[in-house]
Amino acid sequence: MTYDPDNIFAKILRDEIPSIRVYEDEATLVFMDIMPRAPGHVLVIPKTPARNILDASPEQMATVMATVQKLGHAVTKAFDADGVTIQQFNEAAGGQEVFHLHFHVLPRHLDVGLNPPRVMGDMDELQSNAAKIQAALG
Ligand code: 5GP
Question: Which residue among 5, 63, 68, 83 has its CA within the 20 to 30 Å range from the CA of 52?
Answer without folding.
Answer: 83
